[in-house]
Amino acid sequence: MNRLPETLSTREEHYQGETPSHNPPKEVGFFSLDSKRRFLNDSSQMRYYAEPDEHPNFDLRDGYPERYIKWDDSVDEKLDHILRWILANRQVLDVDFVTVRGHLTKLLTTPYDKPGGWLLAVTKFKGILYISEVETDAARQDREKCTGWHHEMVYCGHKFEQYMCADTIDGDPDSTGEVNINEGFFTVIQTRLSDHRLLFSGEVDCRDKDPHAPAPPACYVELKTSAEICTPKQRSNFHRFKLPKWWAQSFLSGVPRIVAGFRDNKGVVVSVKTFHLAEIPQLVTAEDKDNSWRPTVCMNFCSEFLSFVKRVVTEDNPNVVYLFCRNPYGDVTYSVHRDSPHSFLPNWYQDKMG
Ligand code: A3P
Ligand code: MG
After folding, report:
1. Ligand 1 contact via 63 beta carbon (within 6 Å)
2. Would you tell me the crossing angle of helices 280-287 and 243-253 to the nearest 10 degrees?
3. 5 has a pLDDT exceeding 70
4. Hey, which of 118, 224, 262 would you mutate to test ligand 1's pocket, going by the most ligand atoms within 8 Å of its Cβ?
5. Which residue has its alpha carbon closest to ligand 1 atom 21?
6. How many A from CA of 272 to the centre of ligand 2?
7. How confident is the model over 245-257, as pLDDT tens digits?
8. Sheet harboring 165-166: ordered strands across?
9. Which pTM was predicted?
10. Contact residues for 49 (Cβ-Cβ < 8 A; gap 6+)
11. Is the pLDDT of residue 24 over 70?
């Protein structure tokens, strides 16, 4: 009898082979979350990209904390929003996996993020594998001891979006209002990596407002902020740690353009730079060979992880959770749990799909 492998390697050198096949991500739908984080089956939260000056002087701390509407990060939304989208739009699913983009981003970057631990819960229900993250003890401790500085940085990322986006196609950005981080527009993407058919949601910052812009997701623009790069150390950290995450997130949902605002130590955006997704890996190799990384390794690891999940998760039961664990600097192991607190498919979803 063939025994199942108990672990999956996370070492970069095991994933250098040929690049796996990958279908261009296709938008199959969208949804919005309103100011109270309620699901809306529409595009009401879509925003439009507004080209900034090259040196815009945006003050990202303006309005903090008095015009900041936080998100309650102790509420674990799990897969609830994409499940609501499925019930509203697509009760027959022609895919192997349902998840959210952030979990896949973590998988893609795992071989290059050695200290990054994660826990992913997987449940098989009616032949489909659902993947939902479980917060690790370390992540919970980090969240609970979050400093004022961290909160301010989260605000700054969203304040940049407010400076860069208009609410209507012919409007201008309005930086005088509140920054409410509950609101969002989400694309729903279907794609294939090797023989794994995936369906997932991902938040979209804004879209190109040119009527001749390509169809979604190619017209979407991802916005990011980062500290101004002044030293070789900051530059290598940016290339080694930040760019792989930015690349992976946008690659998954087929977003071709990332516009980054670089802030000084007072939180003022001093320069804005556009990164074209296809050029990011070569740019790192050309500018900083020691910190280069390969998309092939990211894609091979993700694909092998999904194959590992397919081999391991055999029991089709919404009350059974297979927990896949990547400890910092470790490989991936798993354990099986029945009626566990980590069960994540809500009854309202099981009843409607049942
Ligand atoms: P930055 O983009 O400047 O990092 P996203 O870029 O994915 O659209 O996220 C928008 C903003 O949300 C981020 O701005 C950051 O402020 C905040 N954010 C994203 N991921 C986060 C995380 N894991 N923890 C805390 N804040 C996060
Ligand atoms: Mg963003």
Report:
1. no
2. 160
3. no
4. 224
5. 154
6. 14
7. 999 999 999 999 9
8. 58-59, 268-276, 257-263, 220-227, 206-207, 48-49, 165-166
9. 0.97
10. 164, 165, 206, 207, 208, 209, 221, 259
11. yes
